[in-house]
Specification:
Elements: E1 7-12, E2 17-22, H1 25-31, H2 34-45, E3 65-68, E4 82-87, E5 94-99, H3 103-109, E6 114-118, E7 125-130, E8 133-138, H4 147-158, E9 161-164, H5 167-170, E10 178-180, E11 184-186, H6 191-197, E12 200-206, H7 216-232, H8 234-242, H9 247-253, H10 275-281, E13 284-287, E14 297-300, H11 309-315, H12 324-337, H13 341-355, H14 361-370, H15 374-378, H16 382-388, E15 397-398, E16 401-402, H17 412-420, H18 433-438, H19 452-469, H20 481-492, H21 498-518, H22 540-554, H23 564-570
Parallel strand pairs: 1-6, 7-12
Antiparallel strand pairs: 1-2, 3-4, 3-6, 4-5, 7-8, 9-10, 9-12, 10-11, 13-14, 15-16
Length: 579
């Protein structure tokens, strides 16, 4: 096999056993890697009907945790990524989370396509992978540390790359992250809480292998074309200059900026938290992931992480805050405790709406990380917290996952994408902001749902495929399915066309949908908070008609259930939750 290593390792923490198996060529071809491979493996191991979405979150924490990379990981430009896949303790849905940096490339160099972790250790442990040597090691000295300290200790002892949880993951914060290379988050959905429940503190990787390529000449040609398109793209040039905070002024200008827990759509003055303000007032260093020339991450020369756009939006305007230093402090605390800044910021904003501002922002974030005082309740996420306070309307979520920094009332394609996302309120399942605001691949009318259902399907399918290659989402600003499929064909030696790649994404999407249906989700969950409908917002009748059309494009019934013929056409009918 080229592109893939052909190796999967399964670690059973209950028994302390390690087993190696071969990745089947059919599974590799049909699901690629990363998100797709992890979803296929999880669905073969887990029956969500045994613990439906109405069950306590603790029922979801026993799910396997799968780490997977793709056939392009560490090989193609902008491919330094990996995916963790499990069932979310925040939402009850199937969930995958992609992280950047160098950790995924190191797994590939250690000659593994996937690592499956099952069971729960009686005492804290960490997993060490050093090429073909895999071990489970005692970690009592690491338990109770946060991300920075744990990473430094493990790096000093072993070298290599480290992915770990902080105290938030240990204590079961439902939006806890897994952090790698200290500043890169596999966020959204609480996968860090799953790792904490397993009493698994960290995974340490060191690999020396070199991934193989089937056609070197075609690979060089495909790489040169991709690099040419990346260098010429204006959106990526802006990201390279300002990082993701380049979006702050743009999003506020279009009145899409969440303010005061999405009660308003614009923030009075965003200049003091904008990308332009940051580069003018801070001495910055750029950071890139493996094989990436964009280098969108920033830190100060003192090593303090500069927050991403989503973090600025949620800890800034959504919390009615224009103090950039406070946003930066909240971001740093979240990274060290290992918490998703979108869900954390949104939950704080929800708390402010219900109770008023009872704590200083960074104090409240620290309390959540420690599960201390009111932070214990907030650590359950905004939906659970607001329901405990009999104020469910104050939680701005879809399927239990808090919405990010784009108000759906002004980008109706993104509204439909939020509502139909398989992991809940997420912009990366289909980044409709690209065509509706940025104009990539072309500008479309953001204020209508007409023509959007089919386009949302295509974006969702392409995103699922990209997450399985595994490629950075920002590459889609410059590349199409044609460039991805050309690179995939060159690396693997298997002929992939654009339509093959999109069909792979569709296969993954339908398998995820079936998982969620088995877990108890229905059409009623494909929606948005009530405050977004009516009174100058989204017309509910138009939204429901668009949802009907979306289901028809998908080959699903109007109840949102995939038709048997569609599952057979995609080749997943026989494997849906086969145990």
């Amino acid at each position: 096999m080229h592109g893939w290593t052909g190796n999967i390792a399964t670690i059973d923490l209950d028994r302390g056993t390690i087993r190696r198996t071969r990745l089947s060529e059919d599974l590799a071809r049909d699901f690629l890697g990363g998100r797709g491979l992890g979803v296929a493996l999880l669905c073969g191991m887990t029956d969500p009907a045994s613990s439906p979405v109405s069950s306590p979150a603790s029922d979801t924490l026993s799910a396997p945790l799968i780490l997977a990379v793709g056939p392009l990981t560490g090989i193609a430009p902008m491919s330094g990524r990996h995916s963790f896949i499990t069932r979310s303790p925040l939402t009850g849905t199937i969930v995958d989370s992609s992280g950047g940096g160098f950790f995924g490339s190191e797994l590939k160099r250690a000659r593994l396509d996937a690592l499956i972790i099952t069971g729960r250790s009686d005492a804290p442990v960490y997993i060490r992978i050093d090429d073909d040597d895999i071990s489970i090691n005692d970690a009592p000295h690491l338990w109770g540390t946060n991300v920075r300290e744990a990473t430094e200790l493990l790096t000093a002892e072993h070298g290599g790359r480290v992915a770990c949880i902080g105290r938030a993951g240990e204590s079961g914060v439902r939006f806890a992250n897994i952090m790698n290379d200290r500043i890169h988050a596999s966020g959204r959905g609480g996968i860090g809480a799953v790792m904490g429940q397993k009493r698994l503190k960290a995974i340490v990787l060191r690999g020396t292998g070199k991934p193989g390529v089937a056609d070197e000449e075609r690979f060089r040609d495909a790489s040169e074309e991709i690099l040419r398109l990346l260098r010429a793209n204006p959106a990526l040039k802006s990201l390279s200059t300002y990082g993701t905070p380049s979006l702050v002024n743009l999003i506020n200008h279009f009145k899409l900026m969440p303010n005061r827990n999405f009660r308003n759509m614009q923030f009075g003055d965003v200049e003091s938290i904008s990308g332009e303000y940051i580069i003018e007032n801070y001495r910055l260093k750029r950071h890139s992931c493996h094989k990436c020339s964009v280098a969108c991450k920033r830190s100060t020369e003192e090593g303090i992480e500069i927050p991403e756009y989503e973090t600025i939006a949620m800890f800034g305007p959504d919390c009615d805050n224009d103090d950039f230093d406070k946003i930066t402090d909240a971001n740093r605390i979240c990274n060290d405790y290992g918490m998703d800044t979108i869900s954390c910021g949104s939950t704080v904003a929800c708390h402010q709406e219900i109770c008023g501002e009872t704590h200083e922002l960074t104090e409240l974030v620290s309390m959540i990380g420690e599960r201390e005082g009111i932070g214990d309740e907030l650590g359950m996420g905004s939906r659970a917290y607001s329901e405990m306070r009999n104020a469910g309307e104050a939680s701005i979520h879809s399927k239990g996952m808090e919405l990010p920094g784009y108000d759906p009332r002004g980008v109706l394609g993104q509204a439909l994408a939020y509502a139909t996302s398989n992991r809940g309120g997420c912009h990366t399942r289909a980044y409709m902001v690209a065509p509706e605001i940025i104009g990539k691949p072309k500008l479309i009318d953001r204020r209508t749902l007409i023509g959007k259902p089919g386009l949302v399907c295509i974006f969702q399918n392409l995103s699922a495929a990209m997450d399985s290659l595994v490629m950075c989402r920002f590459s889609s600003f410059a590349l199409s399915a044609e460039e991805y499929s050309d690179m995939l064909s060159a690396v693997t030696g298997i002929s992939y066309r654009s339509e093959d790649l999109l069909r792979t994404g569709e296969r993954i999407w339908n398998l995820e949908r079936m998982f969620n249906l088995r877990a108890g989700f229905t059409r009623a969950d494909d929606t948005l908070p009530a405050r977004f409908f009516g009174d100058g917002g989204i017309d509910r009748g138009e939204f429901e008609r668009a949802l009907d059309e979306y289901y028809r494009f998908r080959g699903w019934g109007l109840d949102g259930v995939p038709a048997r013929w569609k599952l057979e056409e995609l080749g997943v009918a026989s494997m849906v939750f086969k145990r």
